[in-house]
Amino acid sequence: MSRKYFGTDGIRGRANGLITPELALKVGQAAGLAFQRGDHRHRVVIGKDTRLSGYMIEYAMVAGFTSVGMDVLLVGPMPTPAVAMLTKSMRADLGVMISASHNLFEDNGIKLFGPQGFKLSDVEKQIEQLLDESLDKHLAQSASLGRARRIDGVHDRYIEFAKRTLPRDLSLDGLRVVVDCANGAAYRVVPEALWELGADVVPIGVDPDGFNINKECGSTSPEALSKKVREMRADIGIALDGDADRVILVDERGHIVDGDQLLAVIAQSFKEDGRLSRPGIVATVMSNLGLERFLKGQGLDLVRTPVGDRYVLEQMLNGGYNLGGEQSGHI
After folding, report:
1. Would you say residue 2 has pLDDT above 70?
2. Catalytic residue ranges
3. What is the pTM of this model?
4. What does each C-alpha distance from 123 to 40, 58, 66, 111, 274 come to in angstroms?
């Protein structure tokens, strides 16, 4: 029986504890083998956040992927949603995000995305089985080894993608926005995207040093953001976590707005605009009863799943819902 490596959000643990160069190399080999379909040159996109151990894991995974004949495209520190987008946009067979999300720098992790940019579920068992086997006989021949290269311009590509999700005539002119990037993966792209949309941007948590990711900042410690919003008399505050896949807002008074409140606001807005694909949204068992009652008053259902944004997404895809999220700020 194969060991269980994957949790609700990839493989995660202490760097050089559970997450060693040996494991990272093996994950690269196993995932590369699991996603080889056909005779074309296979490619994988690898992004990471800003923690010190990212270098070690990144290069170990490059060795793993190239040893089974997969080409590697390295994009450096980028938000998790950007890696998902780039995997699909660059027609890669697989995407990897090296991050321990909201954890402190001592931890790290590996998240995998399929060709459509969605997190994996069905392939994880196959990868776990391969991790417990010797893969020597599956290594590529010398002439079939993969190549690795760094890709420039991906920040601009993701900023344009994010801006295209908004109405073309939207402008943030006149809005003062404080954004806390948690000294993590979004430290470059998010302040720039908001500035391009016209906002007066006050960035904090944008000086990563390998150790300070999520430390007394970001969505898990929004007090720093609340204080800065009040100090700068800003209109809104935005706090992200280390890999920028969750968001917490702060209003002009410094009051924190969590994921449940965001879901309520978006659900009401979508309903009024006729944008809900079904009369309801998807959230987890952690969402509070207040959200459920609010939605019921709007004539909307709340479908609950186990904790983990992957389960929310699976239920959305299976049930035809176009809005879901978690109290923690995954939307």
Report:
1. no
2. 101
3. 0.94
4. 20, 21, 20, 13, 36
Distance, CA of 148 to chain centre: 23
| Structure confidence by residue, pLDDT tens digits, 27-61 | 999 999 999 888 899 999 999 999 999 999 999 99
Q: Is the pLDDT of residue 119 over 70?
A: yes
Q: Residue 288's CB: how many other CB atoms inside 10 A?
A: 13
Cα 74 vs. chain centroid, distance in angstroms? 16
Query: What is the reported pLDDT for 225?
Result: 97
CA distance 279 to 302: 9
